[in-house]
Amino acid sequence: MVSALSEIFEEFADLDREDQSRFLLELGDEIPELPAEHRTEVNRVHGCQSQVWLITETTGAGDSAKFRILADSDSNIVRGLIAILQAAYNDQTAAEILRYDIDGVFRQLHLQQHISPQRRNGLRGMVERIRSLAERHAVSVTRAVDRDSQTRSERPSQPVRTLDIGQIRSQFPVLQRSLPCGRLPVYLDSGASAQKPRVVIEKEREVEEQYFANAHRGTYQFGLRIDEEFEGARSAVARFLNAGSADNIVFTPGTTIGLNMIASGWGRGRLGPGDEILTTVMEHHANFVPWQQLALETGATLKLIPLTADGRLDQGQFEQVFTERTRIVAVTAMSNMLGTITPIREIVRHARAVGACVVVDGAQSVPHFATDVIADDVDFLVFSGHKIYGPTGIGVLYGKPERLEEMRPIHFGGHMISQVSVEKSQWSAAPAKFEAGTMPIVQAIALGEAIRWVESMGIEAFHAHEQLLTRELYRRLQGLEGMQIFGPGLEHRGGIISFRMAGMHPEDLAALLDQHGVFTRHGHHCTMPLHTWLGVSATTRVSFGIYNTQDDIEAFVNALTQAERVLRRRGSAS
Ligand code: PLP
User: Fold this and answer.
1) 307 and 418 part of one domain
2) Do residues 185 and 174 lie in contact, with contact meaning Cβ atoms separated by under 8 Å?
3) Which residue, 56, 70, 235, 296, is the most exposed by fewest CB within 10 angstroms?
């Protein structure tokens, strides 16, 4: 039985240091042991001298759910501190925990004076873990409420699950592989390509070894099975995006090709001098160059939605930049460099008012937070399989049925036709119209598997985990001297942080991080106009996936600190 806070105050406050330690030991005896299955890496609290694991349980639902702290340590004094935290926080709601003056409790107990600086850090680590679990709960409740109030066509919200990241990480063979330096890889480049879980790798193997054939060709056993799997993957994608029908899902080789298909197949022939294409300076080249080229070809104008100084779309300027001449708005849902999450619904609202078509680059958003193309009312959305734990060579183009009807195919050949004569040809209906020739069949099926795998845990839970990591890294980096983080504050960004450190060239830094088995990206990240706007030639980028942990952040910050020492000593160009 855990003592009540009032009892602790009564007995504890006036004790001297030695007696407080004895009392903490006694309190520590009172708390129940944390079951072994919860003593995992993911539940470990960092910054403590001893081992500490901490989780929370809730009873009730929504914002009135009450929290209970479950924690344990190999140190009995720390168990005593846990008993104090339990007495203080148990039975509070997330909002109450976030408002609670825990420092006031520590002051009243004179705790800060009586415990060692290391223990103080550990105590702070536990408090931060409790607050971040409460915050995660509060965010998920707000999101569910927001979604419910925004539209009735959206899917019912699922409760956000707490994931066992250690278990998830163990499903990624490449992350278990020792590097020549003897360390396991710290993979922080999921924004470029995510690693693949075993189920996806095995799915590819299953297809190749057991029933491979071309799709939509043979009616023999393998052919039928392949068709079923291929179309099953399309249905999985449609469900994941809430696309209404699998017919609105076109398989492509990736985001880049999908965007080119839209620019050429829908934009060309529709635009002329005086028309405007609206985009942003933060776009990946894949969502910039096709529109730039289309403008040059057709005489249309490429116009940029201004950014705020911290790298968000300046919504105050929407009224001016969306005009009667705007035909296409092509925008990323999340910047691959700044991490900025853009307000797609606001963009769509303004586009509708002027009759423009909205093309969303979902390469960085679809793998990291929920996408609902119907609720968002976008015309087109594209993404790549390799960023969502699937294979390379496969991507998706979603289009509203009427847009796909209007869009011309740009690749011609087998499967996409309904009639061919010597004089002319007629096209099949979408999606076949856009899938000429043999598709990346195995990759499409494996993408379906990757999406089912994400769905089995819930994309909301992926987002919540990645937001926690982002917050932690952001906080750690902010504290470093000479650090410049690009992009907005945490409330407007996903799991990407790009930065520069004074005196350290990103290329040199990447090489030194690599020596520690820490893999990051450096350079312009295919966003040259954005880097020009920011006035830098290159940055270092960390981007998270579901398998990343607090330990990865720890390893990264350690490697960064060591690299800094080396580079500062040598005076690396900045
Ligand atoms: N758009 C964004 C925002 C990206 O981050 C990327 C890749 O990094 C792309 C487009 C291009 O994707 P792909 O190379 O898979 O075609």
Assistant:
1) yes
2) yes
3) 296
